Amino acid sequence: MLFEADEPKPGTSGNVTLWANGEQIGEGRIEKTAPMMLTSYAGMDVSRDNGLVVDLAYEDKAPYPFTGTVKKVVFDLKPGTHDDNKALHEQESIHAVAHGVGA
Question: Is 15 helix (H, G, I), strand (E, B) or coil?
């Protein structure tokens, strides 16, 4: 999946392109993304979901392993500009302060 953010800040919208076996198989738009880190375990699980279930009725089926064959996984993290990284860190700082005030 390729996510091209509209702005270098948490919660921004952007365009998504989905790829499989080197071919584009889908595309769309996400109007909002998560404005903060969701959990400490959320990451890039490959061939299974190690996170929490959406509904406890499915808890016995976790971690939902993929039964096919994963031949290749590519993570291409484009480097951001200095200004992009600065804006992202400023947003993280604002969120951290706001979180501390609400605690």
Answer: strand
Q: What's residue 2's pLDDT? A: 86
Helix (H, G, I), strand (E, B) or coil at 4: strand
What distance in Å separates the CA atoms of residue 73 and residue 64, rounded to the nearest whole number?
18
Give the integer Cα–Cα distance in Å for 29 and 15.
4
Q: What is the pTM of this model?
A: 0.45
Assigned token pair, 55: 């509904």
The DSSP 8-state label assigned to residue 44 in this structure reads -
Phi, psi of 96 (to 5 degrees): -65, -45
Give me the helices (H) in the chain, please.
Answer: 82-102
Count, residues in the chain: 103
